[in-house]
Write a structure and sequence with these properties.
By secondary structure, the chain is mainly β. The chain has a domain of 87 residues: Jelly Rolls (Sandwich). 6% of the residues lie in helices and 39% in strands. The longest helix has 4 residues.
């Protein structure tokens, strides 16, 4: 049997006007690469969210985040698309993401910093939930 419309459209649950299509790099330019989260303008249909934050990061070999950063209430995920990144976590743990698809997940309260080890490196970072003032840089 072939159906003309997907089930969600037949029963009226889908509002196609709610679909947002964009470019992560362009849409995140105003937010340091973050393109989904509580800080995104409401007119960016679907990208303003208190549930999740998503970042598209393009970095160059040798680039570092020397300051420790921490999310006090959010879990974080970094997923390697291309290149290589060394993540350092509070407590002395390190992770080298060097194969596409390598990832690290860490809970709230774990500080991190990083160093880019290949040119170019592309990382997708997801943080949930998206809470104002939750992610902060720690004093040196």
């Amino acid at each position: 049997m072939v159906e003309d419309d997907p089930p969600a459209q037949r029963d009226g649950r889908v509002d196609v006007g709610a679909v947002h299509v964009g470019n992560a790099a362009a849409d995140g330019a105003a937010y340091r690469g973050w393109f989904v989260g509580h800080f995104v303008a409401p007119e960016a249909a679907g990208c303003a969210s208190g549930e999740v934050e998503v970042k598209w990061g393009v970095h160059h070999q040798g680039e570092v985040r020397g300051a420790w950063a921490i999310s006090r209430q959010a879990t974080s995920l970094s997923l390697l698309v291309q290149g290589a990144i060394r993540l350092e976590f509070s407590g002395g743990r390190e992770a080298l993401l060097e194969q596409p698809g390598d990832y690290a997940v860490w809970p709230p309260g774990v500080a991190h910093r990083w160093r880019i080890e290949a040119e170019p490196t592309i990382i997708v970072t997801v943080r949930w939930p998206s809470l104002p003032g939750d992610a902060v840089d720690l004093p040196a």
